[in-house]
């Protein structure tokens, strides 16, 4: 494939070609030779050996990865960077004596200044802070080396005592998994065979055995795995026994399963939670003991669960809740003033001034007077109150009722519950400002949001948002080839303004009284309205949208959003004549649906979303993510819209609002594997389908009625189409610019002599009706708060029905050959409260390329080959 520039489309030389390729190859050879010369063996003292490799052999049924994780010493990491070589590079100019001298000088200097400051406490405080900052930096260099050394890794010096500890740990793990006759041994005298290609230059064999490097081999003899042959219970307390035996169906232990102490621990947790949720406030896991007996039959275990009585003797006490006090202004103190008390459903609400509706709070309260104590309901109450976004914190505490007030029955106890909730600020304002530099234009942007809590006294949340942004853009419409070659490109600032208002109610807004049972799912009702105004050199466009949503959480990790009303009105206020002609040529010559996005549309729909996410904000868990979305729109258009519809070519603003019926389905699945405390393997698979439910007759003509053409088309609103490319999709392509299929989109550029040249177009959005894409990413730490990633993305969009553009239609026997593939590296700057991301991706396989579609050989940093993506947070 001949590479083309994004601007002019003329052939350019690839970055790696000719003499430049030879130079880079020579430079790479010299760099590799330099790194090989930095042998970590030079850092070894007499008698020391470098740990080069660790092997675990002999496993058949045991988890090899778990066994390897228990090994106390692991060799230095070489992926994605040779960290030992980096460490040695930093050590080559590391002077410990000079750093110690500088540390002593700074301490002496600041100690003198502090002494001179005398009793000036403010000055002394500043000097102490400066001394701490300077000495901490020098001390860090003394303890862990300079910044380059900390970026790498110190050589791992082999320690035979740690090997002995590893043998013990591996043996314990195997026995905990039911391999009672297992054994573990280790060999640490195996020299390491290495491949060193640069030995060829010294006329030596590239294969050699290095006695200063050691490979440790752990040999596992598993033996037979033991399985449960009998499960017994020995429970002295009849009340506890009745509840535990009734829950045997939920037990994690079953006859025939392999012995596993991890599962046994989980079963102890299950029994403890079971009893705590049924009133046993004092019950602890320490009362549960499980005894294993392997003496009855070979490779079998008889497991007995024992639950002992309390240390004081007698039975485990059942507790019921006597009183519930809800303090809605915890943390406030008013001297000489007592909190006022309101009572609703036997719950006492206390506050100096009642600002929250007791009805709204009562629906979130699962802890009720007269009910048995329940740990699950306690935790659920805390989650419900946290979900209100009304309080900075909320806790539920219990006090045992003692003395004369206590129940006479020793097996029965009473608790007084107190809910302490500290209110958050009523008004919360967030302001964001920034700027971009694009097309030789500085473009500022800003976003202001105001949140008002408890706006009507019923724990409602009202949010207002206003945003404005300006960004430079080249006006590419009507350019000639000479304009492009001479860089005579006009740049203008595009404008985007927007506003939104959002009201969230803490319950379902329905015409009947909602059952209290629904409150455990944290039900909410949301009203949202937004307005967006976009002014670009080519067009001016507005979008008004309103939604009515029901939200609830069936589990702590899952959320469902049902939107019975979703209405949008899209209007094109003005459009440039040259741009309109460009859209018309794309429609006629290439069948592009881009022109439809500038029609006036009315989009009524209803939709539903299911979201499951077991990860946290910083994505530090082994977790699953699933998002399912379904939408139907325009089903009632036959009641108020007559066909054929009319579309004016030369006056889009005069077009009446059109309604298209459509259906849309999307799915997004992500899997997060935590390999080590700071490395992760993540993959993502996404798919989507958007289609018209029935055909639409559309008459296209000029304003005066000439050149009328009537067509029967399957149309969907442009904003409901599917797109690929961008910072959270296939990152080597610009946002929404990938596809469709293998069709190469082109555009026409005028030459100075009046002729025209057809060149590749990398700037036009490519809507599709079928989406398939995926991502694979390995995340790893680099230095301090800087983290890295290597990734590969693949995907594309297609049209569903026959398309005049060759290769654009989805076909079962062709689509798998039309996946675009891109790879790259990324950097994440993790500031705890904010994660900034930079991804650099290049095209590997372009299904729309002419000739050889494996275009990685033409690698360059031009915009038609590579893409830089800036973002906040992780891409997925």
Written overview of the protein:
One of its GO terms (cellular component) is outer membrane. It comes from Hymenobacter metallilatus. Residues 592-876 form the Bacterial surface antigen (D15) domain. Keywords: Cell outer membrane, Membrane, Signal, Transmembrane. This is Bacterial surface antigen (D15) domain-containing protein. Among the domains are: 227-307, Ubiquitin-like (UB roll), CATH 3.10.20; 318-423, Ubiquitin-like (UB roll) (Roll), CATH 3.10.20; 427-769, Porin. The protein contains 13 helices and 32 strands. A hairpin with a 4-residue loop joins strand 30 (820-830) and strand 31 (835-845). The longest helix has 24 residues, at 121-144. The strands form six sheets. A 16-stranded antiparallel β-sheet has the order 12-13-14-15-16-17-18-19-20-22-23-28-29-30-31-32. It is globular, with a radius of gyration of 35 Å. The two termini are 32 Å apart. With 876 residues, it is α+β, with helices and mostly antiparallel strands.
């Amino acid at each position: 494939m001949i590479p083309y520039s994004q601007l002019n489309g003329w052939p350019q030389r690839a970055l790696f070609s000719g003499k430049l390729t030879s130079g880079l190859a020579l430079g790479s050879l010299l760099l590799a030779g330099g790194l090989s010369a930095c042998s970590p063996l030079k850092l070894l003292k007499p008698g020391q050996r470098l740990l080069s490799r660790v092997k675990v052999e002999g496993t058949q049924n045991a988890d090899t990865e778990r066994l390897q994780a228990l090994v106390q010493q692991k060799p230095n990491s070489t992926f994605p960077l040779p960290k030992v070589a980096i460490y040695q590079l930093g050590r080559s100019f590391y002077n410990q004596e000079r750093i110690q001298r500088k540390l002593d000088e700074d301490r002496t200097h600041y100690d003198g200044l502090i002494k001179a400051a005398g009793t000036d406490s403010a000055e002394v405080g500043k000097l102490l802070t400066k001394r701490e900052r300077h000495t901490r930096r020098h001390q860090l260099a003394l303890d862990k080396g300079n910044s380059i050394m900390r970026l790498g890794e110190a050589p791992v010096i082999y320690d035979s005592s740690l090997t002995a500890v590893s043998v013990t740990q591996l043996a314990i793990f195997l026995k905990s998994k039911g391999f009672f006759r297992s054994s573990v041994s280790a060999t640490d005298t195996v020299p390491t065979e290495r491949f060193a290609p640069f030995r060829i230059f010294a006329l030596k064999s590239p294969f050699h055995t290095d006695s200063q490097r050691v490979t440790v081999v752990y040999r596992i003899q598993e033996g037979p795995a033991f399985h449960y042959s009998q499960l017994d219970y020995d429970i002295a307390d009849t009340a506890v026994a009745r509840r535990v035996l009734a829950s045997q169906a939920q037990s994690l232990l079953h006859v025939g399963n392999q012995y596993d102490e991890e599962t046994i621990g989980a079963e102890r947790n299950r029994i403890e939670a079971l009893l705590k949720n049924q009133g046993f406030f004092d019950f602890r896991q320490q009362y549960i003991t499980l005894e294993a007996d392997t003496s009855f039959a070979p490779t079998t275990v008889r497991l007995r669960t024992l639950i002992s009585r309390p240390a004081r003797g007698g039975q485990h006490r059942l507790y019921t809740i006597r009183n519930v006090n809800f303090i809605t202004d915890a943390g406030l103190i008013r001297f000489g003033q007592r909190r006022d008390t309101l009572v609703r459903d036997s719950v006492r609400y206390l506050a100096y001034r009642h600002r929250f509706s007791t009805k709204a709070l009562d629906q979130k309260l699962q802890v009720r007077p007269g009910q048995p104590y329940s740990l699950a309901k306690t935790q659920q109450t805390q989650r419900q109150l946290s979900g209100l976004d009304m309080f900075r914190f909320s806790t539920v505490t219990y006090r045992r009722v003692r003395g004369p007030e206590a129940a006479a029955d020793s097996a029965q106890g009473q608790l007084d519950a107190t809910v302490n909730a500290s209110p958050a600020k009523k008004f919360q304002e967030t302001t964001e400002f920034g700027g971009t530099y694009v097309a030789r234009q500085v473009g500022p942007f800003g976003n202001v949001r105001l949140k008002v809590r408890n706006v009507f006294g019923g724990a409602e949340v009202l949010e207002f948002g206003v945003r404005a942004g300006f960004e430079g853009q080249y006006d590419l419409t009507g350019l000639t080839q000479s304009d492009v070659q001479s860089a005579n490109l006009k740049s203008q600032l595009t404008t985007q303004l927007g506003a939104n208002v959002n009201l969230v109610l803490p319950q379902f807004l329905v015409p009947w009284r909602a059952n209290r049972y629904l409150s455990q799912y944290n039900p909410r009702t949301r009203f949202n309205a937004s307005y967006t105004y976009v002014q670009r050199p080519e067009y001016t466009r507005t979008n008004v949208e309103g939604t009515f949503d029901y939200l609830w959480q069936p589990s702590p990790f899952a959320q469902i959003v049902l939107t019975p009303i979703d209405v949008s009105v899209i209007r094109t206020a003005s459009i440039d004549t040259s741009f309109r002609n460009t859209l018309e040529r794309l429609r006629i010559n290439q069948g592009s649906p881009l022109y439809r996005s500038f029609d006036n549309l009315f989009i009524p729909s209803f939709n539903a979303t299911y979201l499951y996410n077991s990860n946290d904000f910083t994505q530090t868990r082994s977790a699953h993510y699933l998002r399912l979305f379904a939408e139907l729109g325009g089903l009632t258009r036959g009641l108020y819209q007559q066909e054929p519809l009319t579309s004016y070519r030369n006056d889009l603003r005069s077009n009446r609002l059109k309604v298209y019926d459509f259906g849309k389905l999307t799915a997004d699945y992500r899997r997060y594997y935590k390999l080590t405390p700071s490395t992760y393997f993540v993959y993502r698979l996404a798919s989507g389908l958007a289609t018209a439910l029935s055909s639409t007759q559309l008459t296209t003509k000029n304003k005066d009625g000439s050149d009328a053409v009537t067509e029967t088309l399957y149309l969907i609103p442009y904003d409901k189409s599917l797109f690929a490319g961008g910072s959270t999709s296939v990152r080597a392509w610009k946002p929404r610019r990938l596809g469709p299929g293998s069709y190469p989109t082109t555009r026409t550029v005028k030459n100075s002599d009046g002729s025209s040249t057809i060149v590749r177009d990398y700037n036009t959005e490519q809507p599709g009706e079928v989406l398939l894409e995926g991502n694979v990413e390995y995340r790893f730490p680099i230095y301090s708060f800087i983290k890295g990633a290597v990734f590969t993305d693949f995907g594309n969009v297609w049209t569903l029905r026959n398309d005049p553009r060759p290769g654009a239609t989805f076909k079962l026997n062709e689509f798998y050959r039309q996946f675009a593939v891109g790879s790259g590296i990324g950097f994440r700057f993790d500031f705890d409260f904010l994660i900034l991301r930079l991804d650099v991706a290049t095209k590997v396989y372009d299904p729309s390329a002419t000739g050889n579609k494996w275009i990685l050989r033409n690698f360059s940093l031009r915009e038609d080959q590579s893409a830089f993506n800036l973002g906040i947070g992780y891409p997925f």
